[in-house]
Amino acid sequence: MSTSHPLHKYIRPSGLKTANCPGCGNGILAQAILRAIDEECIPFDDFVFVSGIGCAAWIPSPFFYTDTLHTTHGRPIAFATGVKLAAPNRRVMVVSGDGDLLAIGGNHFIHAARRNIDMTVICVNNGIYGMTGGQAAPTTPAGLRTETTPYGNVENTFDISALAIAAGATYVARWTVYQTLQITKTIRKALNHRGFSLVEIMSQCPVQFGRKTGMGSTTKMLDHFRDSSIPVAKASGMTAEELQGKIVVGELHSIEKPVLDIELANLRARLRKETVDGTN
Ligand SMILES: Cc1ncc(C[n+]2csc(CCOP(=O)(O)OP(=O)(O)O)c2C)c(N)n1
Ligand code: SF4
Ligand SMILES: [Mg+2]
User: Which ligand sits nearest to residue 70's alpha carbon?
Assistant: First the structure.
């Protein structure tokens, strides 16, 4: 009897060890992503995974045994856009961190959402720049002491999912790594959605965020996710004050809108026809 893990077939046989720390939420998420693809029975070779720079960017690259693009900091969505437009039949999934996608990469993020480019973006929101030593990110909670906010963070934070909806994303959901099964279900839905999907995953970084909040251990951070999560249906009946410090989880937005690669293909077909007809 084989004892190998059922998802092992998706891991590149490189012998490389993960860059992520023990207790990091990234391992839980990696497994949830692979399980969603496995359950959907989508050939792994259909995918191109794109990531930027940061701990979360090590989730697909180089470990997922298909095409993986490990790009420059803040630019995974720009690379993913190029891949999707050059090869519309490939499934493009971006997996990267809150800093990578929303700080240096913020402009690419909002414009890809606005253009409804067909890609699944998984944003790992750990509230900090993990890989570079715990600097404040646009998601770092107010008051938190970090490497760059030694007296406490005085900035306002982005609500990543709300930003994506406002920018034009057509599928948006949020979970924490505590809700592993729901993450898998949601990624399956996102994979079946044609257009720009954002799945925001609140994840624990025990090493940087945990140390600085004093929350410390992985289990304490997971307990926090469990105790702070409010399903979106329940949240709709709560006041802003009641929602203070809570994490609204579930499917937040799902609509249909024209998708960029389809619109471009239609445009090309129309221009070709007009050229043949002599009307262009
Ligand atoms: C142009 C550029 N600026 C800054 C950096 C340094 N840098 C690398 S990763 C990173 C932040 C990563 O944070 P996040 O995307 O939240 O990933 P995490 O490590 O938390 O998963 C920064 C500032 C860089 N590599 N390139
Ligand atoms: S520094 Fe934090 S986010 Fe990065 S791998 Fe370690 S625990 Fe995970
Ligand atoms: Mg981060």
Answer: 1
